[in-house]
Amino acid sequence: MSSANHACPTSAADGPAGTDRAKTAGCPGTRWPRITRPRLMVVPVRTRSGMACLRCGRLPTGERVGIAFTTEARLAGVMGADQPWIHLHEQTMKAMLAPLGVTRIQVDPDLVTASLPISVPA
To answer: SS3 for 90?
Structure first.
C-alpha cells in the first residue's frame, strides 16, 4: 500500500482514543499522546463539624506542601492508624491546593510532625 492511498491522522483528534498504533505504523511522523491513568492517592485529612480538610506540611525551606501516600499502610506507618484519610486523584488534589498557593505534593514522606512552637530567647 502506498502512502498516497493510506490516510494518516495528523493529530490525536483525528483518531479515537485507544486507536491501535499498528494501524498508523506506515504514517511517518504520527505521534499519539501518552495516556496515563490518574493517580489515586491516600490523603490525610482533619475532620471537624462534618467537614474534611486536607493536611499540609512544610519543607525545611518553609515551602508548604500537600501530603499524600500511595497506600493506607504507608500512611498508618507514618501518621498512625487513627489518622483519618480519603482517596483523591492527584489532579483533584492539585486543584484543591492551588487556591492556597500550594504547588507541590510530597508523596510518601518518611516523617510528618506536628508544628512545634518556636521558642524565642528571653
So the answer is: helix
Rounded-to-integer distance, Cα 111 and Cα 46, Å: 17
Question: Does the model's pTM come out above 0.70?
Answer: no
Dihedral sign, Cα of residue 11, residue 15, residue 20, residue 24: negative
Residue-wise pLDDT for 33-76, tens only, equals 665 666 799 999 999 888 989 999 988 888 999 999 999 999 99
The domain spans of the chain are 1-35, 40-107
Nearest to 108 by CA among 62, 70, 65, 53: 70
Instruction: Answer yes or no: are the C-beta atoms of 67 and 102 closer than 8 Å.
Output: no
Residue 97: C-alpha distances to residues 7, 13, 33, 66 (Å): 44, 31, 27, 7
| All residues at 6 or more sequence positions from 49 whose CB lies less than 8 Å from its CB, including other chains | none
Eight-class DSSP state of 69: B
